Amino acid sequence: MAPKTSPRTRQTAPERREALVQAAVEHFAQTGLHGTAVSAITDDVGITQPYAFSLFGTKKGLFLAAVERGCERIGETFRAAAADAGDEGPLAAMGAAYADLMSDRSLLLMQLQGYAACGDDEVREVVRRGYAQLYELVRELSGADATELQGFFATGM
Q1: Average pLDDT for residues 53-67, to the nearest whole number?
Q2: pLDDT digits (tens, 9 = 90+) for 44-57
Q3: Distance separating alpha carbons of residues 78 and 84, to the nearest angstrom
Q4: Do the Cβ atoms of 29 and 107 come closer than 8 Å?
Q5: Which one, 21, 37, 93, 107, has least CB within 10 Å?
Q6: Within 13 Å of residue 135, how many CA atoms lie on the same side as its CB?
Q7: For residues 119 and 143, what is the distance between their CA atoms, to the nearest angstrom?
Q8: Number of C-alpha atoms within 13 angstroms, CB side, residue 25?
Q9: What's the Rg (C-alpha) of the chain?
């Protein structure tokens, strides 16, 4: 779990928001949208639940931020891998980087929890949008055609 923030540490709202999202990824990855208590996340960060709700509105809002964070991390990983791609080419480099990234068990589980919660319309839209953005990013970075992209995503990137 995320380290607890000292009650004496003064942080800005964006810093608290970041700490909450990091802790949320850890918690939601383990117990999902419906099985996670917001109090567990706020306890790790050292803030009150009302403050967390003032930042995210609802528990689902915090969950959606955690889902988006996962997509952002994958996108950042793909950009870095494509920029450093050697002879294997950007698509292979992105695939290898994704495999390395998925060794972060919380990120992998958070991704799966996002898919599992897609029965909810809002969650489904955020997951769909994130996946579409990753697809477009890979297309742009690799220059791959539709068949290659289908293979890349169908085999777990």
Answers
A1: 97
A2: 999 999 999 999 99
A3: 10
A4: yes
A5: 37
A6: 15
A7: 33
A8: 21
A9: 17
